[in-house]
Amino acid sequence: MIISRRALLGTTLGAPFAATLPPLASPALAQGQWPARPVRVIVPWPPGGSTDVLARLVAEQLSQTLGQPFVVENRPGAGGNIGADAIAKSTPDGYTMGPVTVGGWSINQYLYARLPYDPEKDIAPISMHWELPNVLAVPAAHVPATNMRDFVAWAKAKRGGVNYGSPGVGTTPHLSGSMFTNRLGIEGVHVPFRGAAQTIPALLAGDVDFALDNLASYVPIIASGQMRALAVTSAERWPTLPDVPTMAEAGVPDFVVTSWCAMAFPAGVPAEIMRRAAAGIKAVSETPAMQDRFLRTGARAIWSTPEEAAARAGRERPMWREVVRISGARLE
């Protein structure tokens, strides 16, 4: 999922956005021993992607809230495994943290032949960070269907089946597309790309027929009318697309799939530091200005206790293990 970093950061990290946020520092957060020096924030994805942009939003506000710089360092590669492993192997003193997406918590252990870290033992969730649904999008110029029922009928009747695009093997868009075609008995061929920046032009050209891709990259192209959004994979309708039904409303029950991210420390960080970090993330994420900014990028700012984040990761592992099995995906 790729978002223009310039577009998002231009009004986000500069003075205009900062001016809309109320002061977040409070005596409860401003006092205490942690953090006593800068905190490194390892982002396991490239600069400019949504995880990077949203992490930078929170890092800047944590710096203001907790009184120390939170310095972002990008460590991309291997589906987020390189950065997650760097977090896992750092000193558990509270001075290295980072955003680990659902792949790092609940998918990659079933997708990769070898994982350099154990997501259940080597990294510890601090708090949920963001969540966003996938959207079933079709190119208006090439797919006649305007609703899910008609699309399924069209896809089943199409000679040779349909092609669906994704930002790569093992991503939630790939696995969602595989689950969708399998569930509905559609003959589907997966076409991996290097992010939505390649998938969207392929859709518009008619080279692929649909994508069940992360919503954040598709909001502008849906608004332009060049693509139709047939359904979102969240449990409820998405605030910025109120006219687009959920998968259940569109006739595909039990299809709630969201991409999400939780901030993580390496395992073994003291409980008091964990508590203060979680409180800091909650403080910055619950402000109306931050929630509005996240929604405008296609995501939702969320937070949780460490225990709640760990429970969600564990709860979703069986589902993703089965979806990976169905997809046949396997990476070295």
Automatic annotation (TrEMBL):
Superkingdom of origin: Bacteria
Keywords: Signal
Endpoints of the signal sequence: 1-30
Residue ranges of coiled coil: none
Classification via PANTHER family: BLR1237 PROTEIN, TRICARBOXYLATE-BINDING PROTEIN
Family the entry assigns: Belongs to the UPF0065 (bug) family.
Full protein name: Tripartite tricarboxylate transporter substrate binding protein
